[in-house]
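Researcher: We're teaching a course module on how sequence relates to structure. For the next exercise, students receive a sequence and then see the predicted structure as C-alpha cells, so they can try to spot secondary structure elements on their own. Here is the exercise chain.
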Amino acid sequence: MAAKPRADAYTAEAIEVLTGLDPVRRNPGMYTDTSHPNHLAHEVIDNSVDEAIAGHAKQIDVTLHKDGSLSVNDDGRGMPVDIHSEHKVSGVELILTRLHSGAKFSKKTYEFSGGLHGVGISVVNALSKALTVYVK
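Model: And here is the predicted structure for the students to work with:
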C-alpha cells in the first residue's frame, strides 16, 4: 500500500496558476502604485492623451462624479470593436480583460505613449467596482 502524502507535502498540485485578471486582484501592488489610488485614474487618462499626442483626438473631458467615479471621454478613434483573428474576441474585450494586450508595444500605432503599456486599463478594470466603456 502506498504511503499517503503528508499534509504539508509540496507537490505539483500545490502550484496555482493565476489567469485573466486574477493576478492583479490577488497582488495589486505588482501592477499599480497602491499608495496612490489616483494612479488608476492616470492610466485611463493616459489612453486619451496618447490618442491626442498621436493626432487622433483634439478634446479630452475628465469628470469626477460625486460618488467618486471618474468619466474620461475623448474624440479619438476609440478602442477597436472588430474581432481579433487569433483570440476570437473584440479588441475592446482584449484590452480590458487580458494583461499585456495593446497597441503600444511597438511604434506601429503609437509613436509615444504613457501608462503601463498593455496592463493599464486592464488593471483599472480588475480593481474597479465597475468599468463601463462606450465606443462611438
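Model: If you want an answer key for the exercise: The chain has a mean pLDDT of 87. Residues 43 and 116 are 8 Å apart (CA to CA).
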